[in-house]
Specification:
about 230 residues, mainly alpha, 7 helices
Length: about 230
């Protein structure tokens, strides 16, 4: 009989990077455009600032994700090498560690020893990696995947307020850009919630609140500089 349950933890790596990138792209680019517009800049200057934000932000997100996830990957690799050495030099002690782990999870000594024996015979390093270190194929760090997902999502997110700035007349730019960007954030919240199996309303409120706050504060700064100028 085929197992019919659907789980979403295998999406956690790329989903986190993609949601972060898209959210950052919308919020940072829309905030920058609103700030520059509030300062009284011309449409051309606003668009140049938006394009620069898209390129710089996408590269920054890619570099940041790659470096941070690579550090995690290096740590995991070092732990696995240490575990491999301990299995070679102290197999009995490592076996007892597995037995102890399974007993702590609720198995009696006999069953825990039987499970540890069979898993050790099958793949001792994989058993220790998963049950002692908490490293699995599903949740393992993947630097390139995270970098590409984050950069691509940022670029897509940043493109939305840029297109709004191109389409809107100068007279309605501020309100149109703000409301359109909030709508984009709400849509992102829905997509993220559906992909991750989270409550939709909570996800939407979370992204729109922080997006509105960032755009409002940046517009206020631009307005103050425009007034002072």
């Amino acid at each position: 009989m085929r197992h019919g349950e659907r789980h979403r933890t295998h999406r956690s790596g790329w989903l986190r990077a993609a949601v972060l990138g898209a959210n950052d792209g919308i919020v940072s680019t829309a905030s920058l455009l609103l700030g520059v517009a509030a300062a009284g800049a011309e449409t051309r200057a606003i668009l140049v600032a938006g394009v620069a934000s898209l390129v710089a932000g996408a590269m920054s997100m890619a570099a940041g994700e790659y470096v941070s996830v690579s550090s995690q990957s290096d740590t995991e690799r070092a732990d696995l090498e240490r575990e491999r050495a301990e299995l070679a030099t102290s197999p009995e002690q490592e076996y007892e560690e597995l037995v102890s782990i399974y007993m702590q999870r609720g198995l009696d000594r006999t069953l825990a020893a039987s499970v540890a024996t069979q898993l050790t015979a099958h793949d001792a390093l994989a058993a220790h990696s998963r049950d002692e270190l908490g490293i699995s194929d599903t949740l393992a760090a993947r630097p390139v995947q995270a970098a590409l997902a984050s950069a691509g999502a940022f670029a897509v997110g940043a493109l939305l307020p840029l297109l709004l700035a191109l389409a809107l007349p100068a007279s309605g730019l501020m309100w149109g850009l703000g409301l359109g960007s909030l709508a984009s954030l709400a849509f992102l919240g829905v997509l993220a919630a559906r992909a991750g199996g989270a409550p939709i309303v909570k996800s939407v409120l979370r992204v729109t609140f922080w997006g509105a706050l960032a755009m409002g504060l940046t517009a206020a700064v631009g307005w103050m500089f425009g007034v002072s100028g």
